[in-house]
Design a protein that fits this description.
alpha/beta; Rossmann fold; 2 domains; six-stranded mixed sheet; 13 helices
Length: about 325
């Protein structure tokens, strides 16, 4: 006798690249997820700055793709959707704000206090209020998952918590920002100056119009804070990270490194002694951390399994959505 699938209703708060990627991933994978995992995922609410659209029986694909059908923000806010629409999981996909974590911080608190599980790609709230949020989730008996916030499609949090659960983690280091890796890779390959490659990266959509958070190492530093707090049970903030970006790297420096058998990469590193550093480092050409283009990579040093290295796409709507879907499935598996 076939078991009836469990219906899991989700809201998506923030419907930019990542939120739209989640909707697309649900559309593509819904039947397969139901067949393999016994979970029927239904999107019942979407909200962003343009407004909200809700249907407790599940939004149709047509409704999701037509923003004109949304209610105006003054009629229904994101918090209204989170609190008033019956659902099990809130997906928080608004842009990262490392100054005060908003609006994502309020969204996550509202969802947990409304007895929703939370899955997020938003780094800001986790970097600023990790302990508070995890304590609230535990108090309410709900899950707060955030694989997409650190490595995109590259599993780090779940790998440490589940597959390496019997290990002591000594350190984690790697390339956690695809924009910086692309710029350094192109500079090294073509001997081009930083400004030229940055402009190229902006033109093809790899770098933001304001790339400072990436190239100054801020994005990597925030991810390190999340790893420090979630893996090593620390209570760190961005201010605890020693940060140097890539803006002063020259083609000459890259050539000298190359001639000596090295590449220069922006490496973030956190260890259980409490050291958090982001800086350009010399990486041997045959080292697993030497990956090119927009790839991310992380080496997890353990006391039993030795060094485990994972490589993957750290950014992109569908890549982030894959991590978000995995987190939703893990909540119910």
């Amino acid at each position: 006798m076939k078991t009836k699938p469990k219906t899991v209703r989700i809201s998506i708060i923030g419907f930019g690249n990542v939120g739209g990627g989640v909707a697309e991933a649900v559309r593509r994978k819904r039947e397969e997820i139901e067949r393999r995992h016994g979970i029927d995922i239904k999107i019942v609410g979407i909200a962003d700055l343009k407004g909200a659209i809700v249907n407790e029986n599940g939004l149709s694909e047509d409704a999701i793709m037509k923003p004109k059908t949304r209610r105006k923000p003054e009629d229904m806010t994101s918090r209204d959707v989170i609190k008033e629409i019956e659902h099990e999981v809130m997906v928080e996909a608004t842009p990262t704000n490392v100054e005060n974590g908003e609006p994502g911080l309020t969204h996550i608190i509202t969802a947990l206090e409304s007895d929703r599980h939370v899955v997020t790609s938003n780094k800001g709230p986790l970097a600023l209020e990790y302990s508070r949020l995890m304590e609230l989730a535990a108090k309410r008996g709900k899950e707060l998952r955030f694989e997409a916030a650190v490595g995109g499609a590259m599993p780090i949090i779940s790998l440490v918590r589940e597959n390496l659960a019997g290990n002591g983690i000594i350190s984690i280091k790697g390339i956690l920002n695809g924009t910086c890796n692309y710029i350094l890779t192109r500079m090294a390959e073509e001997g081009l100056p930083y400004e030229h490659v940055l402009k190229e990266a902006q033109e093809i959509g790899i770098a933001e119009s304001d790339p400072s958070k990436d190239v100054e190492g801020i994005d990597t530093a925030v991810k390190l804070v999340i790893l420090a707090n979630s893996v090593f049970d620390m209570n760190m903030t961005y201010e605890d990270v020693e940060v140097t970006g890539i803006t002063d790297i020259t083609p000459d420096a890259l050539k000298l490194a190359n001639d000596a058998g090295y590449m220069i990469k922006l490496i973030g590193e956190v260890d259980r002694a409490g050291g958090l550093k982001v800086a350009p480092r010399l990486v041997p050409k045959d080292d697993p951390l030497n990956v090119g283009g927009t790839l991310n990579v992380a080496t997890i040093k353990t006391d039993l399994a030795g060094d485990i290295t994972v490589i993957g796409k750290g950014a992109g709507p569908i890549e982030a959505a894959s991590a978000i879907l995995s987190d939703i499935i893990r909540i119910y598996s």
